[in-house]
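quick one before i forget lol
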Amino acid sequence: SKFPGFKSRKFLKSADGSCRIVVEHESKDTFIKMHNSPEHEKLHPQGHSYMSEPPQRKTYTVAAE
């Protein structure tokens, strides 16, 4: 992604087959700006076709490295 503040995106899959997508941004503000952008609104529905249910957005802070 070329959005300001974007750091990484990871697709995680557990042994039971459930999946998660982890998107890392420099700040919550840059994540929200990306999430509310016209580009995201255009591409996000395409990703829904691969999901069994709508995504649930949650934000976290790094507790330890």
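fyi The longest helix spans residues 38-48.
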